[in-house]
Design goal:
heterodimer; A: seven-stranded mixed sheet; 11 strands; 0% helix; B: 106 residues; mainly beta; five-stranded mixed sheet; four-stranded antiparallel sheet; globular
Chain lengths: 117, 106
Amino acid sequence: DAGVIQSPRHEVTEMGQEVTLRCKPISGHNSLFWYRQTMMRGLELLIYFNNNVPIDDSGMPEDRFSAKMPNASFSTLKIQPSEPRDSAVYFCASSLGFGVTSNQPQHFGDGTRLSIL
Amino acid sequence: DAKTTQPNSMESNEEEPVHLPCNHSTISGTDYIHWYRQLPSQGPEYVIHGLTSNVNNRMASLAIAEDRKSSTLILHRATLRDAAVYYCISRSTLTFGKGTMLLVSP
């Protein structure tokens, strides 16, 4: 079975440029999560969707970040304009179900390593 | 919010059992405890989860305290491939933090 697929695996770009990260969740999963990982802050939840609808975006650092899920099989995380402090590894994950009583595990992609020069 | 607390790092020898602790004293009664691990240059990988009863699977065992304020992930025989960062999270908050880095020596 195909897992969560993220692209690109690596992205190097200059400050001020627009960056778009892509994610294809596991087929049939109805929840999708975007995380950011840095040495300083660890793994942080940015935003999550349930049935393609954003549920909580309180982890999004600022207005330069935006995320969309136009359909059940695709999501994007966009940074515009990008800054050096956005450099991190960004992970996408998907799962079945959602909510406090959910017991479904998350399945993570391999991540996108983003470097902003 | 249900916050979890883990030691920054632990060490073990190969083929010895490892007990990784996690405190989650504010977790609600219906919130599941999940464990993940992250190998270098990879995304987190699901290990095991539980609610009240102890759980076993092919990767590990999970022992949950009767009052649910803490849990322990048990690797019965550590191998070099088990060296990773282990995260304990409450399913409702999805707050991973920095986890426990497990070092395994041959």
